[in-house]
Amino acid sequence: MRPQLVIVGAGPRGTGLLERIAANAPELYADTGLDIHLVDPHPPGGGRIWRQAQSPLLWMNSHAEDVTMFTDDTVAMDGPVREGPTLHQWAGVDGATFADRQLQGRYLRHVYERALAELPDGITVHHHPRRALRVSGPRDGRQQVWLAGRPRPLLADLVILALGHLDAELDDEQTELAAYARAHDLVHLPPDFTADTDLSPLRPGEPVLVRGFGLAFVDLMVLLTEGRGGRYEGDTYVPSGREPVLYVGSRRGVPYHAKIGYEWTGDRPPLPRFFGPAEVEELLARPAGFDFRRDVWPLVEKELGFAHYHRLFTAHAGRTAMAWADFEEKYAAAAGPAETRALVAAAVPDPADRLDLGALDRPLEGVRYASHEAFQEGLRRYVESDLTQRHDASHSADLAVFLGLLSVYGQIVRLGGVGAWWHGFFSYLASGPPGPRLRQMLALSRAGLLRFVGADMTVRAEDGVFRGASPTVPGFSVSARALVEARLPDPAVGRARDSLLRELHADGVAESPEGLLRVDRGDGRVLDTAGRPHSRRFALGPYTDARTSGAFTRPGTGGPAFRQNDATVRAALGILRNLAGRAAA
Predict the structure, then answer these.
(1) Are 548 and 13 a contacting pair, CB within 8 Å?
(2) Does the global pTM surpass 0.70?
(3) Does 26 share its domain with 123?
(4) Max Cα separation, the chain?
(5) Residue 128 and residue 180 in one domain
(6) Is 323 in the same domain as 418?
(7) What is the pLDDT of residue 584?
(8) Residue 554's domain spans which residues?
(9) Helix-then-strand count for the chain, H and E
(10) What is the CATH number of the domain that holds 139?
(11) pLDDT of residue 566
(12) How far does the chain reach from its first CA to its final CA, in angstroms?
């Protein structure tokens, strides 16, 4: 019988795995038949999140030239490079375009179809448009993958879980809020994928409390304004009259930083410099393990600071008071944060040119406004300043920090679970919305349809309503009959609604402290509680402790997801080849 490989999930990650199978099979699996079963109720390529059947108003938050599904020589992998077009090259659009998600879905479908066409003879893909319910089978034997609406399981020699983002059961706080909403005829929309959320209960003209100021909020804002017939005339929003009034706050109280709107010129900072493979290996070798804040974050700070100052000194030397070679030597030798701060203060006269990650992370820390209206004006100034800086090449040290973040992310993936804070910090600085979205926020604010609540926003359920407040504006609160949690569901395995992951959790797989599925850092095999890798099951994606920033990435930046895909596929093909050889013998 031909070997059988089941891949659960046909979105970007599953598609990327097929691309790597097509690239590696000629070397590792020549002249051996293989059936690949791709399981996903959504169309292959885009999957659920990037499906073509969604609102054309929803954009990607990356320039079209910064989106690729194909490897290049910057990806540290053992498999062959198979170059291919970026989104903008394939679609024939301007590289600076923020494409809509429908177009990205078509691009992903192209990548899927190209991978199918490049598979060697004898390897066949079967798409099953169903949900995978559970996986069973012995550790060292054939697996059974049970599908919805199918009485018999798929038999699999190997299973790769590429499930992507999933729905989650409500945590204790969300459960209480939902119960309160039912008891008082309120609207409570828990963490969800905004494109899939029924927003019809949010009534025109009524206040809506929103917790979350990231990309999920941007989608919500778009669907409740332009999606309800409003339009923009320059910097002015013309309402349709069907919009609710959004009162938004979050932990930081500010939106994610805008995408940078200029091109890189000159030499890039030589990264990694202070946080590379050697440092990762040293951390992993520690018998007692490592702590992110104590052991990893200082390396991250040093690396991002190096990227920032390398650019400042080499591209904007007039704003420095020391030769780069002297600064670099002293920066490398600085024993701790205090020495580094003293060096920077001496070498960089303007405090605005110094990198302060703490202030970037919490810009409203300790800031107080006398009134709600004063805060509206203050935050509009903050957003306007951010837009100006992120589109001004005289601040190109920001872009260097972005490159540093990409380098750091590639190293942190190798460490496994490091906590949710890092992923949020990375997204806040490096994966924010397009500049035009922030300009739309400003227009909606001026129109009175978007109101800022502040940092450390609290929501209380009392007196038959939801009440939101923030220490940013002491004494101010707003009451509403609707509350939206504008963020993705928690990826913890133990709370996943997906029955397949729940069954794995019940079987006793290993979890990180954050509840993520632990996998082998080398090839993605699922680990048990004793740390042993499963011989027949692999997993990749945001619910694992090896999660990356995305399944596609910027060309020329190493693409950790591509490296993972290649390692997993090469390990899987090796196992399948050995199994086929045994069967033939």
Answers:
(1) no
(2) yes
(3) yes
(4) 81
(5) no
(6) yes
(7) 65
(8) 4-168+490-584
(9) 16, 19
(10) 3.50.50.60
(11) 97
(12) 12
